[in-house]
Amino acid sequence: MRPERIAIIDLGSNSARLIVMHIDDNGAYNLAYHQKEAVRLSEGMAGDGLLQPAAMRRAIHTLAIFARMIELLQVDITLAVATAAVRNARNGPAFIQQVEQETGINVQIICGDAEATLGYLGVTNTIDIQDAVLFDLGGGSTELTLIKNRKAEQTVSLPFGSVNLTEKFNLQNNAADSQLESAIAFMLRHFEQLPWLKDNSIPLIGTGGTARNIAKIDQKRKNYPIAKVHNYRLGWLSFAALWQEISRKTLSQRRKTPGLSNGRADIILGGLSIVKGLFDITRSSQLIISGCGVREGVFFQHYLGSSGGILPDILEHSANNMLLFYKGHTGHASHVADLAAAMFNGWSDLLALSARQQKLLRVAALLHDIGITINYYDHPRHSAYLVENARLFGLTHREQLLTAVIAGWHERPSAKFVNHRVYHEFLDENDWQTARKLALLLAIAETLDASQIGLVKKIEAVFSGGQAHLLLFADEPIPMAQQTWTKLERWFKKDTGANLTMSYSR
């Protein structure tokens, strides 16, 4: 395939966003550009159901800027969608015609169900969860999806979002308790008409600006050491404390709240009222924030095509995409991952590790050499940095850090890059012991395929009588210095308590 650049525009009720995704000739993709502008397209619509002239001018001005960036970035395909504000406006179609005339961008007005589907695709392909209630909370609508076994079982679009709910109950400035209670009660009346929402006690997943701001505020409150909102998780008690704090503040005080976007301070109470209502109706104990939504859904729908837009294994796909993006040696990486898996399974009684930890080992094995793209020397540390900071989907924040340590230690354990406080705040002593064991397996596998041509075709790993044995199936002995093997034996003895031996078979 030839390289391709895709521009995706999401014209929402509160903001307009442009992302550009680059797809390489090997199929790897990455986010190449992102721009967000506040347009407040739904502002003032509540009265007559019409997009207001000032709001339309803001939107068209922003889209003209987007059009120029698309031209400069040499984009091949532009996919633009408009959501609730345009969908609900009586002059929405006329506005879209004007947009095309003045900017050249062909914007598709999508229905509520289509918007919910795109949000579902964006979330389900980037967060590894089986069951959840997904809400996409925009400025003028809230899309709700019941996810069971990663499938969308129920979907509904409600014509209320952070902007129009704020306007309806006059929550822009200093909202009284009675106003907030009325807003929540209003949303609960709508939620109660959806029996599949009630008391299901599965996690909430939130996408959209309100959800992202909830994450950022909570992270500031907790001095969270990672600046990442995607897959950030907070419990009901954390949300309740956040609600109590924000709902009691004046507008000027909200503008000074750490983590809260200044441009969202006047509409945040409307958004939080919707989330509070969802917590109340579902009795959920956890909120997971997704940084991915409609835009990513549009991308996956395009990228995956006829497969239906759902990835069978998020983590495997994401790791392989990262491997291809950094032009890694895919054959060597896959073989090292297979060798490490054989040891993990053969020595399972000795290692006493979980199936989930085996997945982390596989990801670290696939990505252990990508740091070579920065510099061969000290490349394990470079690999760890890339793994830590990548858009690697399917892992929690803690798991991603642990995977980075495993990849970074594939030659030997080292405190060189893990002295940063983020590692020590997230990982406990059990995590460090796990990292040493998994990195040990990766180091052995890397040593067995140091030639990167598969001299060792396969292995059998056996643990018996306090001794771990490796049987290597190879046509010739691998070129390995005795000093290298001695170091591995010592590492093995230190972290497992067992002796390591090796023999060959043709």
Automatic annotation (TrEMBL):
Residues 29-302 form the Ppx/GppA phosphatase N-terminal domain. Keywords: Hydrolase, Stress response. Pfam families: Ppx-GppA (PF02541), Ppx-GppA_III (PF21447). Belongs to the heat shock protein 70 family. CDD domains: ASKHA_NBD_HpPPX-GppA-like, HDc. PROSITE patterns: HSP70_2 (PS00329). This is Chaperone protein DnaK. Residues 316-460 form the Ppx/GppA phosphatase C-terminal domain. It comes from Dendrosporobacter quercicolus. One of its GO terms (molecular function) is pyrophosphatase activity. PANTHER family: EXOPOLYPHOSPHATASE, RETROGRADE REGULATION PROTEIN 2. The keyword Hydrolase applies. The keyword Hydrolase applies.
